[in-house]
Predict the 3D structure of the following.
Amino acid sequence: MPAGFTDCHLRREEREMLQQNLLYLFLILGAIWTAIWLAIVFSVGRVAPEPAINAKTAMLRKRLVFPIGVVLLVGLAVSMYWMPYPSVRGRTLGQPEMTVKVSAVQWAWDIGEKQLPANTRIEFELTTVDVNHNFAIYSPDGVLLTQAQVMPGYTNKLIFEFDKPGTYTVRCLEYCGIWHQIMVAVLTIV
């Protein structure tokens, strides 16, 4: 490890506990936010006597706000399945069949293995010791397929399966300094 840097990686249990606590925090904040909006919605139902046009507007509001709120809440609940947490990601994609370590430095990628098999779930373990980067994989046609943030002192995991052989390009999508544009690597999928 370069001089001046310390190894501040959290143990897996600590990371999972931190993620769980953040999830609870956001759920509590979401509940408070929902309570505020419910108070607003129910206050709309109490309309003071006004001219007919305002009463029609208030009635329309009462008829629309509740159904829209229900649709939004159901949509939120259903979308929780696709949240990008490790347990959900593992359940959706399955366990990785191969792990590749990737380290980013200004302005290069150090990729453990650059020749990888197609149709194999690969877990990229992404880390850096200098500044934030973004690990982005582009198809041979130049289409962005997947990406993940790479942060100092933290190992982020990205699971991806290449569906066909070819030459894939890895680029940094996070501006990381004056030579950011040359931070490119190639993966050969066989």
Observations:
- Residues 95-189 form a domain with the Immunoglobulin-like fold (CATH 2.60.40.420).
- Strands lie at 98-105, 108-111, 115-116, 121-128, 133-138, 144-150, 156-161, 166-172, 184-189.
- Helices lie at 12-44, 52-79, 86-93.
